[in-house]
Structures are given as structure tokens and as C-alpha cells.
UniProtKB/TrEMBL annotation:
Residues 38-399 form the Aminotransferase class I/classII large domain. This is N-succinyl-L,L-diaminopimelate aminotransferase alternative. PANTHER family: AMINO ACID AMINOTRANSFERASE (PTHR42832), L-GLUTAMINE--4-(METHYLSULFANYL)-2-OXOBUTANOATE AMINOTRANSFERASE (PTHR42832:SF3). Transmembrane segments: none annotated. It comes from Methyloceanibacter caenitepidi. The keyword Transferase applies. Keywords: Aminotransferase, Transferase. The keyword Transferase applies. Pfam families: Aminotran_1_2 (PF00155). It is an enzyme of class 2 (transferase). It comes from the Bacteria. One of its GO terms (molecular function) is pyridoxal phosphate binding. Its cofactor is pyridoxal 5'-phosphate.
Amino acid sequence: MSNTEAFSETALDVLIRSPFARLNALLEGIPPGADPILFSLGEPHTALPSFVQPVLDEHIASFGKYPPIRGIPELRHAISSWLARRYPALDGVVDPERHVLPLNGSREGLFSAIFPALARKPEVADPAVLIPNPFYQVYAAASAVAGAEPIFLRSGAETGFLPDLDKVDVGLLRRTVALYLCSPSNPEGAVASRDYLEKAIRLARTHDFLLCADECYSEIYTEKSPAGALEVAQAATGSLANVVSFQSLSKRSGLPGLRSGFVAGDSAFLAAFERFRNVACPQVPLPIQYVSAAAWADETHVEQARAFYRANFEAAEAILQGRYGYARPEGGFFLWLNLADFGGGEKAAKTLWKGCGVKVLPGTYLTKSQDGQADQGRDYVRLALVHDAETTRDGLARIVATLG
Ligand SMILES: Cc1ncc(COP(=O)(O)O)c(C=O)c1O
């Protein structure tokens, strides 16, 4: 057995293997059948917003300083003003001093938040973290590294691609330290309703765990803007207790390389998270904070991004014509297609790469089979519609031509 194989045998590695590394391994040695089109990675190809360069230039000298972990006042204010504009129930509620912390992209925040979330419930001997299934890998990585048991909650078509919260056992809820909820969800684009979010908040408070609402796709929608966990908490209960929302400029502003996001919500949790972050996490570089403040203050580029994705979904509708179980998702920019008729996700990914140079992500790399349940991602592939409409049309037409 080689060293690589030995490493991949560890429980931690099995839990947190990168879907993209697995895809590269799957396609290794297979030449693409045409000029590649990568639908595998959720990296937006929207235009760089025009304010990025001038703001960066103006503040370039501040790379020479250590930034404050809690962010500069300009950024905290831009974030709280954005929250108040986006979610009117939060107007006058979000205090930039107490309710907001900047992050280096939402991923590191989703990861590191688990440590103070765990520390909130020291009395629990066997802590658990609830994770939707399919899921974003960092939820599982965080639970595994923090020593909590990841519990994968089936989120299939029969429950609108969100976990059925009524089915979670009370004993499990008592030992839960955090529930990750992604809305709009990756990969299915399902949006949690206000009632659903209220239920999640009620459970979090009853059993005193942290609801980690991953809302990085909230600004990409075709018709109705998705509800947010914080606004629902405030409107329904007049409090943000037990709820934090993770946001990002990666998808909303098409700036995944900026590595900038924020977490907002429960002030007691954020105070603990700030103390933790102050010794254990990286600060956001000052020039990036200034660019981020400009990004949260501007909606024009976000409306342009929504139009960009709308054109892609229109192309998908016209070209796929309902094939592969296509339905336009409520939010986000992914297609979650059922390719059971083509041998399932992994086989279809190989067929498409080899046949027409289109790279798609097998759904099984985003799911976990647990307790003998069938792997619900096995039949699926995920496509990120992040290219311009012409490339999107080309890629989708190739898929139809190859699979039929
Ligand atoms: C569901 C979900 N959450 C969080 C992230 C992290 O994004 P970032 O760290 O760029 O903010 C991603 C990125 O693809 C994602 O798909």
C-alpha cells in the first residue's frame, strides 16, 4: 500500500475528501472529447465589479498593517446596512458593534464556528452536528476535526431537498451543538420557507444549539428573494439568539478570489467567536475590507449577476426541455440532474468528459450514505451554470447530443 493510500484510509480523510480531487481522480487519463467546458466548479465568471480596482488602489498601503479581527468600522457598517436593506425586519436591529464579524470567505467561518459552538454546551459528553445530505464538505470537516459526531440528515426530493426536521430524534437534538442549514441549498437550489426556518430556530432554542445558516447563495434567485434566518428569527421572536447567518461576496459579487464574507447574528455567540478568532483565525486584510465595504454597499453589480444567471437558466430550459428531471431551482446557480438512465453520476461524468469535454460533478461526491441508507447522490450530477450564456448553451447542447 502506498503512503497516499494509507492516508486515505484515515476516518478523517474519508469524511473530508475534496469532491474536486475525487473528480480529478475519476477522470485521470481520460482525454476530453472536445475543448473542455467546466461545469464542475461553482466559480462565477461574472464581470469584475468596476469599483474593485480603484478601491484597492486607494488602500493598497494598508497591506502594511495588521488588520483588526473584528473588522474596520466602515466594513461593519456596510454589512449591517446591507442586512437592514435586504431584510427590513433587521432594520435598526443589527448593531455593527455586536452582531457582525468579517470572515475570509464564508468557508473558514463555517469551519471555525464549530469550536465556540461546541464550547457553548460543555455538559454534552457525545456532541453531534446536524448536516443536510447532500452537503458542503466543510460542515463535515468541522465536525470531524472538533470531535463532534456528524449526523447526515437525508434531504431528498420527497422533502423538498431540505432535511425533515420533524424526524430528528429528541435524544439527538439534546446532544446537538449545531445545525448547518444551507438555503438556497448547494447543490439543489432549494429554498427554506419562513415556516421551515421558524421551526429550525425553535428547535435550536429548545435544545440550545446554534443554527448555522449558510446563505451564500441568497442573492442568486430567479423570482422571489429567499427568506433569511436572521430576519425570520427577528420577525417571529424579536431576538437573534441561537442563530447566525454566513454570507459571502464569492457568489453575490462574483469575487471568489477576494476571500471575503461575514457572519452575523447572536451577539453572545459572536463575542465568543471573536475571542476565539482573535487567537486562532486569520484577519481579513485591510485593502480587502475596504473593497468588501464597497461591494456590500452596491446592488447594481448584483442585479447584473442575477440577469447573467437568469440567461443561463433560460438556456437550460430551452436546451434540456425537461430532460434528466430538470426543474429550475428557486435559488443558486446549480443544476442537479438525475442521470440514473445513463449509469448514474460517476459513469455519466466519465461519458460526458470523454464524449464531449464537459466536466460535471458526480452527486455521490456531495453525499454520504449513513446507516445503510441508499446513497441519494449516486444517480445525480451537479452542474454549475457559472459561464456566459454562449458557453452555457454550448455545454448543455453537447450534453444532450452525447446522452440523448
Ligand atoms: C454551500 C456553500 N457554502 C459556503 C461556500 C464557501 O464560499 P466562500 O468561502 O467562497 O465564501 C460555498 C462555496 O462554494 C458553498 O457552496
